[in-house]
Amino acid sequence: MEMRVLIVSIALSAFAPVPDLRVVTGFVPTVGRINKNVRIKSASASSSACKSLRVDTKEGATRNIQSFDEWAANCGVQRAEGFQLTSDDGEDWYAATTADLPAGTPVLAVPGNMIISTSSSKAELEAMSPSVAAAADKLVKMGGGQYLPKLYPFLKVLVEYERGVESPYYPWLDSVPRLYYNAVSMTEFCFECLPPLVFRLSRDERLKFDNLYRALQDVDIVSDETKEDKELCKWAFSTVQTRRLPGDDSDVKIVPMADMFNHGTDTEVEVSIDDEGNCLAYTTYDVPAGYPLRISYGTPTNPSQFLATYGFLDETCPGSFCKILDIQSTPELVDIGFDFSRMLFYKDTGDVSEEVWDVLLYAKILPKHNVALQRQFYEAHMNGDYETKQAIHGRYTLETVAELKNHVDTTIIQLDELSAKGDGKDFGEHPRLPLILRHNAFVKNTFQMVQAKLEPMMEQLAEQRALM
Length: 468
What we know:
The chain is 49% helix and 9% strand. By secondary structure, it is α+β, with helices and mostly antiparallel strands. It is globular, with a radius of gyration of 26 Å. The termini are far apart.
């Protein structure tokens, strides 16, 4: 018990005093008050002992949620009555409410000095050593300049990890997952079971990590022991990638406690950063007691992106991207609807969005049969000439349906082949494999619903063509 008090005390001292947020957020005075009696008890453990006591990042280690919860309150994090951290399986912890929360209710406020951001980490770490700026330059020269905003939080997490219990972020680090399911955490065999889209997205995530890991090797404020531990570095990368606040990628922000908001297609909470840099969260509708408090992590129509980046499968969105990848994007195609959020298959009905039909006709059918009509179709689309668009569609409906059906049939066969690779595999050796198989089954079920709609359409159109 004495060591736990020491840890909380050391962590708290770096953040006190904190601003009083009640005036701007409307929190009741009893929520999130600072415990001014907490003191550092340096006699309880030596400095060297503190440095040696680091967060256990092994995948089987338990997340210490209780100490994190106490630490957050003592550091000035304020929460609405009913806000609590809960878990259904003891592994995934998330924010929920035990009380009814009317729309517009402030549910969480986190002081800005607790937030790990690109800008604050950059200033702090570059002041510690010129090697940090050199590593950033190296990253840019390697062609990874777009990853710079994640470099500084990545280094910050590793620096705080090495500080052990002397880090003010120790309770937070001890609360984050050890077992991640995102692409960087997957085994090589897991990659063999990924369909093309999620494979491509997962490969991009691996590339981000590889670039940051190479840049890390030139930083002298992180020990060689840590730099050589690739699994530890993957954990740090995954912590940044999955715990960051969705939004502005130019200044990544990790907000302790706000990182407990799970993703939802329908969101209960909206998060923002105020002018003073504090993180504030408010309900978006009347949230009943017993509901989770969720935010949006991105475009819900692309569950493959969530799997690759965050390591979860969102099955709640009614429509998801149709997985057509063999079309090269052009400005004209984007105008027509070539986008993950618009080219959709609907999982419950098997319906196909209008954009899928438009893109297939424009990009695949008309170039083979009538290039002049391709331009006419585009102009009709841009001018809102629905009648002309439908007339052109009508001339090539059979060809368009056949093209889409071939894509659907081929994808279903491919999904079966990929998932069959997992038969008999040890899930202990490949703990992300069950999630990948569930993703494949979700995509297959959606495609089968579409297939069931296309088959009678194809038969009817073929009969009509035969009678012409």
